[in-house]
Amino acid sequence: MIARGMEIIDIEPAGYGNFLALLEKLSPSRPRAVLWHEQGIVRQLTLGGEALRLEVRSVRDARQSARQLFAMLRGKAKQVVVTDRQGYFRMCDTLNLTPLSGEEKYGYQSRLNEELRTLAGESFAIYPQPTLDRGPLDYGQVSGFFSGHAAGSSHVILGVFDRRELYFSFVVRLSGGQVEWASSFDHWPAMIGEVEFSAESLEAVVRRVEQSLGAVACALLLARSDMERLFDGQRHDSLPVSLIVGSRAFGISYLPGVAERAFLNTAGLFAYAPVFVE
Amino acid sequence: MSARGLSRREFLLALGGAGTVVALGAGANCGAAQPPVVGITASGLLIGGKTVPLYSAGLDYWSYDPSLWDTLLERLSRIGINTVGVSVPWSEHELAPGQYDFGALEARRNVIRFIELVAGRQLNVLLRLGPLLPSLAGCGIPARLLFDQRVAARTARDTVAVAHTPDGQYPQPSLNSAALLRELTLWLDQLALRLTPTLHPGGGPVVAVMLESALSFFGSLDYPYSTDYHPDTLALYRSRLAEQYESIDSLNRVYGAAYQSFEQVEPPREFMARRLDNLPAYLEWVAFRRWADNHALDRVAQMLAARGITGVPVIRKAPAPLSGGPGQQSARGPSVIPADNPRTRMKYVARVSAGSCDYPLGSALTGGEAFPALEGIASSAENEFVAMMALMYGVKGLDSRSMVESNGWLVAPVRADGRVRSDYFNACRRVCRFLRESHFEQFTRKVEAVVLNSRALDTMLAAAGEASAACPPLSPEAAFIRLSEMGGKTSVHACRLWSAQVEGLLADTGFDWNRATAGAAADRLMRYKVAVLPSVDFIFSDEAAWLSEFVNCGGTLVYGPGRPALNERMEPDPRVDALFSTAAERAGRAGGVPGDSLQAGQALPRERVVRLESPLKIGDLLKELEVALPFTRTNPRVELSVHTHSSGRMLLFAANSTGRAQRTDIFFQGRFDFRDVLEHSTFSGEGKIRIEIPARRVQVWEVSA
Prior knowledge:
The complex is a heterodimer of chains A (about 280) and B (about 700). With about 280 residues, chain A is an alpha/beta fold. Chain A is built from nine helices and eleven strands. Chain A has helices spanning about 15-25, 60-75, 85-95, 105-120, 140-150, 190-195, 200-210, 225-230, 260-270; strands spanning about 5-10, 30-40, 40-45, 50, 80-85, 125, 155-160, 165-175, 180-185, 215-225, 250-255. In chain A, the strands form two sheets. Chain A has a six-stranded mixed beta sheet. The longest helix of chain A is centred in the middle third of the chain and has 14 residues, at about 105-120. In chain A, about 45% of the residues are buried. The model of chain A has no long low-confidence stretch (mean pLDDT about 90). By secondary structure, chain B is of the alpha/beta class. Chain B is about 35% helix and about 20% strand.
């Protein structure tokens, strides 16, 4: 689990807006295209709720139609649903899967996705199949990395800069590999005015967070362009080569293993803010 | 103890111990004299014969260390609000069934102490008693109840309905569940015991109580086949049908069914209508859900009253759009508009609120954003603009959910530790300064026209799943069945277009108007000269009755594009016939003498019921009807609204919603002095002034002769 029930305070307005603009690309299902059919005869195609004209007349196998439609729409839809009336009702039933008391959000979502996958057949299909994965790294990798390497209580810091200006920032507290508290540099008076895109500034930020909150596991300052490259909708195995070495990013890691791996997971962690579980 | 109202000082002294609290409550109930009650008017609360507007900001006391409470209240006081919204979440105070903590175990739960501090700062309290508080995780309901199968709302497929929120997922509670209501009585017993002495009639600072459902079936009010098919909701549905139809034969005739009794009637679980005469069962299910949403809150209000929470207005948060049954709002007490996407729909929501609510109280003064704020976060200047627009178009009181940051509540003017975000803080202060210095509550917006929401159209669209294209993302009704293929004379598309064109043309011409539903506006309808109704082939019969009364009292009804001939049961109806068969076509002269009322039973005056097939002439028609237009402008991008004072003074609002500065000439008759309410600069003009308004700005002048 990445977030159990996060406390969120003190996030600066502009930074939060910038963060959202970046993450907007990460929704795995919206815009969603829906192809409605009745016994294989197409009744309507909608994209983001709006009717769409497209030369699709019949559905023989919903799984195949969904794949084809996804290709035909060429990136206009993040997800395609092909369904008839009965498929729709089965999906509604699944979306109302009864939660268990105390069940965490990602755990529930994972269970729900599994149920949705079992619905696929000749009359109903979702393509690509619902997943928790988003951002540069898949869910299992980020979750596994922090559960395995940051099992105690520690903090992870991310600052993104647009040229010399702070674009957005996040500071999260991890406990047992789960995010339990989120804030930004705005939480510390004067930090916003002082922080710079430099190694010295990063060290000062880490010191301040350590004094105020406790141990820091990993901290990364990254340029906006490099963050956007990481968050381009594809999976990435590594940070752009030589970012740290070439002083285009600054990082401090106290986590075991290769530092670049910790930095990549730090950047990837912020794709899993609770907002994008859907 | 005497039953007279206590002074605030006495109240503070009396709150010294829990025993005293109980005694105060008992005294207030047993006294011979009638305690002073708080009333409500269109301008604010009526306290001791004085109108006191409600400018409220919430502060979730249990979220902060009590040592911070006074600091945070001081910040709110500096903003300029006069009331603090105090939510009392059930889940926060209940430790286990029958075990409650109000501060004995944890000081942050001491709501009485908090109210005492609010009173000490000379601020009023608006108590938000839920019972469902949609902004809190799990709606503020204890988890043991949320996950109780007997409490959960049911889907059309009889599974548990689930709420998916950023905080997690949980079964949606049904406010009709008998199991939940039983538990609610125990919780309200506890609450009333402690809170009754804090009410204003007892000398306390609580001047109003707010009730809210969970935003109307968890935002699914327009999706009638989603929830709630809980057995207790269905029992209520059947008993309501029995009331409305009296005999099962009558219902069978309308529904084309063969039920033996009302207990057998099944609500629709998906939209299967093929013809107009199939519609009644679906329309009544939609109407029932809207009624039930209010009924649930009425029931809680009665439970509060039975426990001594009386003497202050109980404000119900109404669903949007406010399109309920006859007299819904006025008959059952004041309502407020919900926090319904205030930024993008503020003008509409403000007009609906002004047209339908006893006291138009709005959430326009944004005190922060809930996480995740998917639409981004507005700048402080934008928040100020939106709040001023709301005031310009009819909102008279402000209620911000919270102005202090807490978990998941971002960019509030006041941070959790008491620091302020100066830009947001000062924007809120400017709005409050405007309200205070202009004595805004003493002005009334000058509006003589109302554009009615067609209940027939709204209900039909909801029944057919065409109310909204975007949400939920999947809806089968619109894909398989089209209202346009059902054989009506007037298409819903034409009616929607007519309605949009009317508003566009009114705005271009410079008229100001309210929005309302004929039933919800009730007696308020009579204050307008002209009511404009987008119409299809049928109309709810009680709506027709209200409109007939309006015309009888001297108003003019303008409708189009369709001519209603049937009622909601798709039957001919003498009330519908009496209203619409007499209508003059627009080719004929439109006239009417305001205030010239007819006797009951007389034929409706032909010239006061005007059918306008094309809305293009609406501006001319309103001018012919002498609808007031005291100020006109040359630039239609500048919007004007006039609020008048009994002394003859006016507030002239001029708004520029565009992204560029706009210049315009404003014309009027006579010579006026203009004083900028916030800047205090003055100038005069005779017949005409020229102004320039910066982008996204509302300017207000006090105008006097």
